[in-house]
Task: structure prediction
Amino acid sequence: MTLRRISIVMVAVVMAWVCPHKAEAAAEKESTDNSVPLPVIARGQGENCVADTQFMRRNHMTMLRHQRDETMREGIRGNQYSLRDCIACHAVMGPDAMPVTVANPEHFCRSCHDYAAVNIDCFQCHASRPEPSVAAIE
Amino acid sequence: MNMKRKTDKKNLAGTPTIDPGRRRFLGTIAAAAGVTLAPGVILYGIGVSKPVLARDLDVAVSGDVRWGMLIDLNLCDSGCNECVSACVEENALQGHGRPATDAQWIRKVDIHDPDTGLSQSLPVMCQHCAEPTCVDVCPTGASFKRADGIVLVDRHICIGCRYCMMACPYKARSFVHEELEDQKPHAPRGQGTVESCNMCVHRVDAGEQPACVEACGKNGGGAMLFGDLKNPDSEIAKRVASYATQQIRADLGLDPGVRYRNLR
Result:
C-alpha cells in the first residue's frame, strides 16, 4: 500500500520534470500528500530561451561563469548570456505585482536550486530581481 | 635601439613594474631626443589619435584609451555634496549610520591652511592609478586594472583580506561588513568583499559619464570633467595640456588618472 503510494508520487515527480506545464497541477497535488515540494518553473517572456531548455538546465552555470569574466575584466557587454537578462526575463511577480526577490521561495532561481539542494551565492552580491522601472516596461 | 626593445617587451607583458626612477630617466632621454633631434615635432603624438566614444561592446576594452577625470577646485563648493549623493544613489550604497565603517566610494575632503587661512574642498575617490598599489598587494588577483585604466575589484575572487585598503594611499576603498539587500543590477556588491569607485564602469561602457560628473554638471558647480586622457581631441586631454593640473601625492609615482586644478 505504502510502496504503491510512493511509486505514484515518484512518477508524478518525474512527469513534472519532463513536462513543465504540468508542474503547477502537480505542485497543487503535493500540498495534500506531504511529498517534496516541486520547483515552480517560471517561464521566460519570449518564445524560447537563449538556448534549448535541456541545455540550459545542464549548462547555465558554465555560460554565466564564462561570460562574467569577459564582462568584468574585458568590458565585453554585447554577449548573450547575462545573469541580468536571466533575472529580467524570468521575473516572478509577487502579490504586489512587483518582481519577487530570492527571499521568496517562488523565485525562478531559488525554486529549482532548493529542489536540487544546490546552494548558490550569486545573490549575496547580485540583484535577484530587475529594477522596478525595467520590470514595469517589460 | 636596445632601450626601445626593452620598452616593447614591457608593454607586451602587460604588467609594467614600478620603477619611477627608470621611467623618469627614460622620459628625460626621450624629451632630450625630442628637443635636440626634432624641435617642434611631438614624437609621441603620431598615430595615437582615435575617437573612442562609441565602443563596440563585443570587443574587449583597449589600452588606447585611458579614462580620467579633471576636477577644478575653484568650481567646487565646500557645502556641495552632489557628487557623493549621486554616487550613493547610482550604486545603492545604503549606509547604516556608522560613518567609520559604512561603504564610501567618494567623499568630500575639506582642507585648511592655517598659515594663510585658505580653505578648499575636494572630492576624493579611487584615483584610478596607472601603477595601482592595491593591484600590487592583492593576493588573489581580485584587484585589477582594466586595459582602459579603470581599477576594479573582482568580488568573485576577493577574499576580504583588506590588504588593498592598507596599501591605498588615498583611503579610497571600503569593506562591506554587513549583509546587503536590494543592490542595483548594474552594481553588484556584497558582504565580505572590498569595493571602491569603479568610475561607473557600466555607464562608461554605455558611452555615458560617471554619475558624480553628471550630477556635478547638473546640480553642482560643474567642476568635474570626465574623458579619455589618451585622445588628444578630447576636452580633458586639451585641458590638461593647456594648464597646470595636479595629482594628489604625485610624489608616490602612482600616476593617478584623477587630476585636480587649482589645488593649493
Remarks:
- Residues 41-137 of chain A form one domain.
- Helices of chain A lie at 2-18, 23-33, 53-74, 83-89, 108-116, 122-125, 132-137.
- The first helix of chain A runs from residue 2 to 18.
- The two ends of chain A are 50 Å apart (CA to CA).
